[in-house]
Amino acid sequence: ADKPRASLRPERTILPAGGSVAMSCSVFSSSGWKIYWFRQESVSSTAQLIRHNETGGVLFISEEGVYSCRGGRGDPVFYTETSNKVFIQQTVPIKPTVVLQSNWSQIFRGENITLRCEIQGGGGAQWTYEWRPTSRNSPSSNKYWIIRAASGRYSCRGTGNYLLTRWSDDLSLTV
């Protein structure tokens, strides 16, 4: 028969600042498996064994990264296929600010304008950006272009290296 595969299920994929997330690893085909836990610091790094020989299939983690597991049993050890990878992002206590880039105090309906997402104290992280409401013209830029301005509320947050900032306060745009 084919090798069994371990299955990894997280309690959630967003790690709250100072908190933890429960990860559950299981092998469905039979019993007697000991669990081996792995973590990658980034997608391009090599998975490092963080725990092994665990008889329980639950691990509480408190660091962001890419997690996987596998089962092993017997002597010599027979291993299952490695599980699916689970990406865990950690919330950091940083709140970006949305800034209107305009030289004018009044904006008129139909003008083209730009908003900018500013992150202070990001520790040198390489951020990509999410915007609310979403827009096709700014999927990951710190700039949000509004063509033919209309009144609305806009906010942003940063993601990078499995870190996730809080959402900024809304910028209310009145035209």
From TrEMBL:
Q: Identify the residues that the record assigns to the Ig-like domain, covering every copy.
A: 4-70, 96-172
What Gene3D superfamilies does the record point to?
Immunoglobulins
Q: Which domain of life is it from?
A: Eukaryota
The keyword Signal belongs to this UniProt entry's keyword annotation: yes
Q: Does the keyword Flavoprotein apply?
A: no
> Which UniProt keywords are listed?
Disulfide bond, Signal
The UniProt entry, under InterPro entries, shows: Ig-like_dom, Ig-like_dom_sf, Ig-like_fold, Ig_Fc_receptor
Per its record, how is this protein called by name? Ig-like domain-containing protein
